[in-house]
Amino acid sequence: MLELSRTVSYSGSVAGRVYSLVLNGKSNEIFEPAKEVFITNQVVNAKHSINHIDFRGIEKQGGRVLINVSDTSIPIDVTQTGKEVVVNFLNTKIPQQLMKRFDVSDFHSPAQVITMQQDRKNVRMTILNKGDYGHFVYQINNQFMVDIFPLTAEELHQAKLKKQVFTGKRISLNFQNINIRAVLQLLADFTGVNMVVSDNVKGDITLRLNDIPWDQALDIILTTQGLDKRRTGNVMLIDTKANLDKMEESKLKSQQIIQKLEPIRSDLLQINYAKAADLAILIKDKQNSLLSEKGKLSVDARTNTIWIQDTGTKIEEVRDLIKQLDIPVKQVLIEARIVEVSKDFSQDIGIRWGISRSPTLSGSLAGANQMQQAVATANVAPFAAAANVTPFTDRLNLDLIAAPANLANPATLGIALAKINDNILLDLELSALESEGRAELISSPRLITINQQAALIESGQEIPYQEATSSGATAVAFKKAVLSLKVTPQITPDNKILMDLQINQDTASPQTFNGVPAILTKEIQTNVLVNNGQTIVLGGIYTQDKTKTINRIPFFGELPVVGVLFRNKQVGINNNELLIFITPKIITNSLSITTIEGREKEVYK
Predict the structure, then answer these.
(1) Which regions span the lipid bilayer (predicted)?
(2) Looking at per-residue confidence, does 475 or 352 come out higher?
(3) Nearest-angstrom CA–CA distance, 156 and 166
(4) Pairing of strands 48-58, 92-93
(5) What distance in Å separates the CA atoms of residue 206 and residue 221, rounded to the nearest whole number?
(6) Which domains, ranges and CATH numbers included, belong to the chain?
(7) Largest Cα–Cα distance of the chain, in whole Å?
C-alpha cells in the first residue's frame, strides 16, 4: 500500500520476478529486503544438505549466523515467534556432527543459543534470543545468513505501533481544513469518552479516513499533529507531547522531594526460600539500588531475615520484590539406568594319542589320565597290577588336549587298542569342551536436586595402596572405583529439562602397576534437552571379541583329513553391550510426597 500526497497516473508491468510500478511518468522499482523467505512450489528432485555453520559478531552488538548450503535452490521458511527465530530448510539433511546446540552468548548479541536438528526430511534451526531484537535474512550464492540485532528505542516504538491492535467502533471521517479541537470533540461525542483538551492544542487538519476503529483514527490524528494522550482513571488528557513529557518530569521530581521528606522507619522481612544474603546483594546493587540515599539494610544469617531502614515507600517496593523472588525453587528427580550385558561362548576340541610296544594290556574308557592298565599273564588274573606297565602319559606321541581359558575340565573319550600278536599298543583320547555364559548387570542411581544446582551421588569402593611421600616415607592413598552420577539440571519456561550430565561406572582391575591398582572406567559426559518424564538413551557401547587359535604339528597338521589328528582348535566369542538411560522428572509437591512414601514402603517391605 502506498500513501500519496496527490492523485497521479500510474502503470505496472511484470518482467520475470520483478514488478515495476511507474508513477507520474517516472519509474520507481520497489525493493525491500524481505524478512521472510516463503516456501516455493518448486519440485526438488534431490535432497539438499547443510555443509557448515558459523556465527560472527557484527556492528552495533549484533550477531550473524552463516549457513553454507549445497546449492541455491533450497526452499527456506523463516518465522519469528516470541524470543525465537525458526528457520526451516525443506528437503534438506544435516551431518550428524552439526546436529547440536551452539552457545553464542559470549558474542554479546541478542542471540544466545542456536539449535540444529533433523526434523524428518527437513532441517530446523532455532535461534533463541534475549531482549528486544529484530532479524534480517538474505542469501549470497551458497551462503544463507541471518542477522540478529538489538532494537533501538525508536525502532522499538515503531515496532510497537505496528503491532498495536485497535478495537474501537469503526468510524469514517472526511474533512477539509477542519479545526483539530472540533475533530477531537466529534470523537468524544461518538465514543462517550471523557476527554480534556489543553489550550495548547491548535491548528487545522485535512483527513479522509474510511471505516477504521476510532482509537486508530485518534492515534493517527495525534501523531500527525505532534500531540499525545494520557489516561487518568476514566479521563483522557490530550496535550502536546512536549507538555505531557514536562508534566511527567515535574511529577517525578515532586515524588523525589516527597520521598526525601518522608520519615524513616524500620522493618524486618522474613525470607522463606531464598538466601537473605543473596537478596540483599540484589537490593543494594550499586547501579540499580532499591534503597534511598538514607536507606540501610543488613542480614541476619541465623534467622534468614533482612532488616531494612528506609522510607515507607521504599520498604514497600522492597517487599513487593521479595514476594516475587522468594518462591520455592523447582526440583528435579533424575533417574539413571546403566545396563551392561555380556555373552560368552567358547569351544575347544583336542586330541592326544600314542603308539608303543608293551606287554598284553587291556583298558577301559575311563577318561583322561584314568585309563586302567594291567598285564594279563597265564598266572595273573586280568587287570592285576604289574610293575613293568608303562604309564599312559608316558606312552603319548602327541598331546593336544582341550585346555580352554576358563580351566574347566573338558569331556574326554579314551580308547586303548592293542594288537596282541605284535605287542603294539595304540592309545587315543579325544577331548572337547563347549561353554556358553550370559550376564546382565543393572545399576540404577537416582537423586533429587533443585533447579540449576549441581548434584552428585556415588557408590563403590576406595582401593588403598602405598605411595612414596616427598620425605621418602610411605603413605596410604586411595583410588576410587565407584558408580557415580553428577548432574546439573535447568528447567526451561516450557517445562523441558536441560541437563549437564556426567556418569561414571568404574571397577577395580586385578592388574596393578608398581603397586598402584588399575581402574576400568566407563564414562559419558553430555548435555541433553529432555521433555519432563521422558526417557532417552544417552549412549551405548558394543564390543565383540573373537578369537580362534589352532595348535598343530608342522606339515602334518596341514594335511587334509588326517590333519585333524595333529592339531587342536580353540574358538572364543565375547560380546559386551553397555546402554545408559536417563529419565528426569520435575517434582511438584504431590509428586515429592508420593515419591517419599513409595520409597519408605519399599524399604520397610
Answers:
(1) none
(2) 475
(3) 18
(4) parallel
(5) 10
(6) 1-31 (no CATH), 48-156 (2.60.40.3470), 164-256 (3.55.50.30), 262-327 (3.30.1370.120), 348-434 (no CATH), 439-604 (no CATH)
(7) 154
What DSSP string describes 125-164?
A: EEEEE-SSEEEEEEEETTEEEEEEEEPPHHHHHHHHHHHP
Distances (CA, A) of 212 to 173, 180, 187, 546: 9, 18, 13, 82
Residues 6+ away with beta carbon under 8 Å from 12? 19, 20, 21, 22
What type of residue is 324? Q
Per-residue pLDDT averaged across 586-605, rounded?
A: 52
* Chain centre distance of CA 453: 16
pLDDT tens, 273-309?
Answer: 889 999 999 888 877 788 888 888 999 999 999 999 9
Crossing angle for the helix pair 214-224 and 180-191, to the nearest 10 degrees: 160
CA dihedral sign, ordered 165, 169, 172, 177: negative
117-132: buried (b, 16+ CB within 10 Å) or exposed (e) per residue? ebeeebbbbbbbbeee
Task: Name the pairing type of β-strands 143-150 and 516-520.
Answer: unpaired
| Mean predicted confidence (pLDDT) in 73-86 | 88
SS3 228: strand
Instruction: Round to whole Å and give the CA distance between 248 and 242.
Output: 10
* Joined grid coordinates for residue 330: 523447582
Query: Per residue in 404-456, pLDDT tens?
Result: 555 555 555 555 554 444 556 666 677 777 788 888 888 888 889 998 899 99
Q: Which of 574, 530, 458, 505 is nearest to 339 (CA)?
A: 505
Render 171-203 in DSSP notation, one character per residue: EEEEEEEEEHHHHHHHHHHHHT-EEEE-TT---
Q: Distance between CA atoms of 330 and 592, rounded to whole angstroms?
A: 11
CB of 523 within 8 A of CB of 504? yes
pLDDT of amino acid 488: 93
For residues 449-474, one letter each, b for 16 or more C-beta atoms within 10 angstroms of the residue's C-beta and e for the rest, the string is beeeeeeebeeeeebeeeeeeeeeee
Angle, helices 276-283 vs 312-325, to 10°: value is 130
- SS3 call for 109: coil
pLDDT tens for residues 217-275? Answer: 888 888 888 888 988 888 999 999 888 888 888 888 887 787 777 888 999 999 998 89
The one-letter amino acid code at 25 reads: G
pLDDT in tens, 136-174: 888 888 889 999 988 887 777 666 666 667 788 888 888
Q: Identify the residue whose cell numbers are 596282541.
A: 420
